[in-house]
Amino acid sequence: MTMRATWNGTVLAESDATVVVEGNHYFASADVHDEFFEPSQTQTVCPWKGTASYRTVVVAGNRNADAAWYYPDPKDAAAEIADRVAFWKGVTVEEV
After folding, report:
1. Which among 21, 36, 55, 68 is least buried, having the fewest CB atoms inside 10 angstroms?
2. Helix or strand or coil: residue 33?
3. Domain edges within the chain
4. What dotted CATH number matches 3-95?
5. In 3-state terms, the chain is what percent helix, strand and coil (to 5)?
6. Which tens digits make up the pLDDT trace of 33-74?
7. Cα dihedral angle (19, 25, 29, 30), rounded to 10 degrees?
8. What is the pTM of this model?
9. Bridge partner list, 93
C-alpha cells in the first residue's frame, strides 16, 4: 500500500514502505520532499522512543509549525523509525 502525506494540496511525502508506530506512519527520509521543510528548535521526549526533533512545513508561504517529527537517535526499542519522519497538525496521511 502506498501512503501519501499532504498539506494544503501539496505532497510532502509518499512511500509504499512506511513503518507504523502508535498509529503514525513514519516515512523514510528519502521519501520526504525536503524543499517543504524548515528546521525547528522544538524537541520532546518519549520514554521508550527517545528525543524527537521537529520540522516546520512550509508550502506557498504558509507555515505549519512543528508539523513533522523524527527521532535522530532513537532508543533501541524504536530502532525501526531511525531516519524516518511522521506528521500531524493537519497534515493528511492517507492510502493512495
Report:
1. 21
2. coil
3. 3-95
4. 2.170.150.40
5. 10, 60, 30
6. 999 999 999 999 999 999 999 999 999 999 999 999 999 999
7. 80
8. 0.96
9. 5
